[in-house]
Amino acid sequence: MPRYLDYAATQPMRQCAIDAWVDAAGSLNPGSAYGSGRKARSVLDDARETVAELLGCEPIEVVFTSSGTEADNIAIQGLFRAGSDTTPHIISTPIEHPAVLETVDKLRAEHGATVDLLPVDSTGHVSDLAALDTPAAVATCMWANNETGAIQPVADIVQRAAAQSTPVHIDAVQVTGKLPINFHELGATTLAASAHKFGGPRGIGLLLARRTPAPQPIAFGGGQERGIRPGTVDVASASALAAALRESVADMEQETARLSALRDKLKAGIESSIDNVIINSVEPTLASHLHVSFPGTDGDSLIMLLDASGIEASAGSACHAGVNRMSHVLEAMGIDEEHGRGSLRFSLGRLTTDEDIDAVLAELPELIRRARSV
Ligand code: PLP
């Protein structure tokens, strides 16, 4: 069995989610008025109520989507459509996931949006909120970065934007099930999450959306999910999502402490056994993430060498047309190509053990030495 250290990419389904999915797999169309429709509807209603209770919102504010990517797209495009007549302006950050980055870019290139990016400092945290003092159709920021794990000042962002009545979308895909979330207390307009990041199935996500201002739909059809995300809902996956969320919230405190200790051990071990490393995960960060650059290497080779040693991790860098380039996140942190091109993201989760960390620490120094010698 490979040692899997890429939980930020996805994680194995929790047994409770598999059980919930199997139990509800026979559900028919929850929109049908007859008995089997009502039965499916009741499973879906239970899932919606569970999500609402765990994330601090009303059931009506829970919109099931097909992914985190779809939730981000609906929120950003939909809020832009709702508000762009008066303020065709968007505020974002340079470290967003492509689901946000490319959506904002599309609105700029094809729909005349003007875009301001909140700057990020060398630790990967949004450092200046002044751009929020200009009204916008939507401001969007991730709660924690998927590469470094850096936790962003989302409460401050929501508060600052409120003074201009700017709706705020929060991409909470990396934090859901890892940090406490109370949608109403946060005061955001919309929030995106994705089941497979907290042990639910791949292929189902969540958008929390206040009644008003609500995003305008970007797809059309039946009126499901308040018309915000039309299409027949996958009842079995919604039920599995709710079960996974319940378990991850219940285990959150204990898991955070356990993963912090493992992550700190990995970090200390890397720093003491390998020269010239740059730790890119700087507090406040998620306990699950450790992003490290090894100058003199390149990310793709590191992944292959690790894979050959039975360790699965990610480069945290994007591959553009076959060229291994440094990630936009490191670039925004002011790291240059020479230092950032050879980077690894280790992301830990509920099945990560002490032995997994020992195995990485046993292999990595020699592997970096080989990568540096070519
Ligand atoms: N936003 C962030 C911060 C992510 O990390 C991801 C997935 O890696 C997404 C959005 C997209 O989620 P999904 O894989 O469900 O489309």
From TrEMBL:
Question: Can the keyword Chaperone be found in this entry's annotation?
Answer: no
Q: Where would I find the Aminotransferase class V domain in this sequence? A: 4-360
Please indicate if the UniProt record lists Membrane as a keyword: no
What are the names of the required cofactors? pyridoxal 5'-phosphate
Q: Which reaction does it catalyse?
A: (sulfur carrier)-H + L-cysteine = (sulfur carrier)-SH + L-alanine
**Coiled-coil region(s):** 235-265
Record keywords, A-Z: Coiled coil, Iron, Iron-sulfur, Metal-binding, Pyridoxal phosphate, Transferase
Q: Which family does it belong to?
A: Belongs to the class-V pyridoxal-phosphate-dependent aminotransferase family. NifS/IscS subfamily.
Q: What is this protein called?
A: Cysteine desulfurase
Q: Which organism is it from?
A: Corynebacterium intestinale
